[in-house]
Amino acid sequence: MKNMNLPNKLTLLRIALVPLIVLFMLLRFPLSYLIAYALFGVAAITDHFDGKIARRDKLITDFGKFADPLADKILVISILVVFVKHDLCQAVPLIIILFREFSVTSIRLVAAARGKVIAANMWGKVKTVCQIVAICVVFTLESVFDIISLATDNVVVLYDVMNVFKTIDYVFIWIATAVTVISGIKYLVDNKSVISDI
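Structure (tokenized):
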């Protein structure tokens, strides 16, 4: 760790935050989702700054190229798994996202092993942003629901609010999933010549 540069330390911090975020989501006490949301915010900030600092200070490393996208995938997928457990996300979008991520990562690794570089494209960034926005929406609504449930014990009101929030959650998750699929297809089309030589 002593010889590791700041961007890579930020990437490792993001990975280290994942178990904490998941823990607070699973504990499910009042406002636990708000705490998890705050930790997710810290993780998202590290994602923004590690790349920015690496480019600015010319600290781009092979470790960073590998660990940064891996950290993003670990963060997003871990949270989505807990969302499925809490019925805030359906299983199908998670499976689609997992399939896309494993497929693209596998192709990249095989290409890299054969000395071929498959560059990321703009759709990859758009995909990540859409996934983060969807996660933020779910975290926000769950945090609001926790606050409402502390203010009232009216079962009918809570049930109605929960159903409205769940519908919104599903819509945003599906939008992120659609963009994830588009980004995967665009990735394959843009790199078909490289992939065909693998």
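The CA atoms of residues 106 and 164 lie 38 Å apart. The mean pLDDT is 88.
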